[in-house]
Amino acid sequence: MLERHPGGERAIIVQLDFGEGETEDRLEEVRLLVESAGADVCAVVTGRRQSPDAATYAGKGKVQEVAAEVAAHQGNLVVVNHALSPAQERNLERSLQCRVIDRTSLILDIFAQRAQSAEGKLQVELAQLDHLATRLVRGWTHLERQKGGIGLRGPGETQLETDRRLLGKRVKLLRERLRRLQQQRTVQRKARSRSDVLSVSLVGYTNAGKSTLFNALTHAGAYAANQLFATLDTTSRKLWLGEAGNIVISDTVGFIRDLPHELVAAFHATLEATSQADLLLHVVDSASPAREQQMAEVEKVLDEIGASTVPQLVVLNKLDLTDLPPAVERDEYGKITRVRVSAKCGDGMPLLRQALTEFALEKLHSLDRSKMADTSLIPD
């Protein structure tokens, strides 16, 4: 796995604008990511370019500016809020004489720190190794260090070829372990679907308050913190809704803009539960000025994992940070589409339970109608 960042690293953030806009939002987000990884942000370098420089991403003048900040603040880590090519990463490290990581590596590192379950750790390691496969610049024979180095190498193999072969073997092993875990999940989901229990998944942008909402609904005591990617491992609990009976509600990993493809692929087994759900609670930080963009980013990931057609109920959370009262919004057919709540304070939570009860009862009634239709087709 990737080397971890020890706490107290002094980081310089590089944020360039290539015409995407939302520069301030992007800068604030990467600052939170760096702090979530355990580093101290001691300087920020910004700028504008038409396109990234092929060799150094930022161009000669901007690299010199970054080098000056590294020297002035005794920085030992440069974080570029963009995806870097292996060549750009190597060239920047040579010029700056310190470690350089891109946005993908930063997010992968946070995931590595937060993963708790065996499955979560496997998924993160697989994502890291997939990312590393294109940028082998250091030796990776430590993956099989317990077997010793001499004798591992094939005839005529260079060290790099050996590293790639060992990395490939490790990736294959991880994929097989995750495949078996995915099979177990599939069996469990089929058992739940046979019992006609409504399945609800919480989705949303990272730090929107999903885990706090999950705890408020289920009293599960899941870890919740004001930081990015506080939750990685999916947690499921039953929730009693009176006349609607029990439903199963699941807390899942948060999404973020430019979520590394390696992570989406590695966490496919976990995210598959989202695509199989009967209802998605799309939790939104209603106090965030970037909430519309964050909702759009969540929709992009849902589309990528095949969950874009699952019915959604939007939960506008963090009501305590706005001046709006708790409320329910309905469409022209009378169905609840949005609920305004504060999971932290409890305001509006009865309205959310009411919305879930309505959806669960409608699902039960549709199942009953379906069973009656099937029975009517049986010949006398």
User: Over the alpha carbons, how many angstroms does the gyration radius reach?
Assistant: 24 Å
Strand content is: 15-25%
What structural class do you assign from the helix and strand content? Answer: alpha/beta
Distance between the termini: 64 Å
Total beta strand runs: 11
The poorly predicted ranges are: 1-7, 138-142, 144-153
The main pleated sheet reads as: 7 strands, mixed
Q: Specify the overall morphology.
A: globular
Q: What is the succession of H and E elements? A: EHEHEHEHHHEHEEHHEHEEEH
Mean pLDDT: 82
Indicate the percent of residues in helices. Answer: 40-55%
Strand order of the largest sheet: 6-7-5-8-9-11-10
- Total number of helical segments? 11
Question: Explain this structure to me?
Answer:
The strands form 2 sheets. The protein has a 7-stranded mixed sheet, sandwiched between helices. It has a 4-stranded parallel sheet with strand order 2-1-3-4, with helices on both faces. By secondary structure, the protein is of the alpha/beta class. Helix 1 runs parallel beside helix 4, helix 4 packs antiparallel against helix 5 and helix 5 runs antiparallel to helix 6. The longest helix has 36 residues, at 159-194. The protein has helices at 23-36, 60-73, 86-96, 103-114, 118-132, 159-194, 210-218, 261-266, 268-275, 291-304, 349-376; strands at residues 10-17, 40-48, 77-80, 99-102, 198-204, 235-240, 246-251, 279-285, 312-317, 327-330, 336-340. The protein contains 11 helices and 11 strands. The N and C termini lie far apart (64 Å). The chain is 44% helix and 17% strand. Mean pLDDT is 82; it is low at 1-7, 138-142 and 144-153.
